[in-house]
Amino acid sequence: MKVYVSVKQAGKRKEYITKKELFLRDIPSTLRELITEIVRINVAEYNGKTAEPLIIQYLSPADIENQLKTGKVGFGERRNPNQADVKKAVETAILAFEDGIFRVFIGENEAPSLDEPLALKEGDVLTFIRFTMLAGRMW
To answer: What range defines the domain where residue 114 resides?
Structure first.
C-alpha cells in the first residue's frame, strides 16, 4: 500500500518532509500498527546506511536542492557504528505518542487513539505533527 507522509513541527510553517512516498507491506488496522510499520521502515533504512566514511564525498547541485527542502543537507553517513533496535525504537515511538510528543492525522482527521480502528486507503496523506517542549523560565 502506498501512502504519503509529511512531518511538521508545531509553531513552524515549513514542513520538514513534504509528501514523502512510503510503501507499507500490509494495511494497518490501528494506529499502533501504523506507527510500528513506519518505525520498522525507518530503522531498516537507518541500519542500511554505511557507518564507514566515504573516500570522496560530494553532493550534486540537485542533491543539495532536494535536501534543502527537508531542512538538512548532509552526506547521509552514520557516525555511530551500532545498529538500531527495532523493538526499542517502536516502544519509544509508542511512548512518545502516549506522552503527547506528536500527533498523527490521516488526511484532515486526527487519529486520537493507538488501538481504535483506522480507515487507511491507498494514497492517503499521513501528517505527523511534532510538538516542541518549552524550556526555560517565564519572565
So the answer is: 2-130
94 is a domain residue: yes
At which residue does the C-alpha cell 505533527 appear? 129
Contacts of 121 (CB under 8 A, 6+ apart): none
Residue 139 lies in a domain: no
Among 7, 11, 6, 5, residue whose Cα is nearest residue 132 = 11
How does pLDDT run across 78-89, given as a tens digit for each residue? 566 788 899 999
Q: How much is the pTM? A: 0.72
Hey, which bits of 38-131 come out as E strands?
102-106, 109-110, 125-130
- 10-24 residue pLDDT tens: 666 665 556 788 899
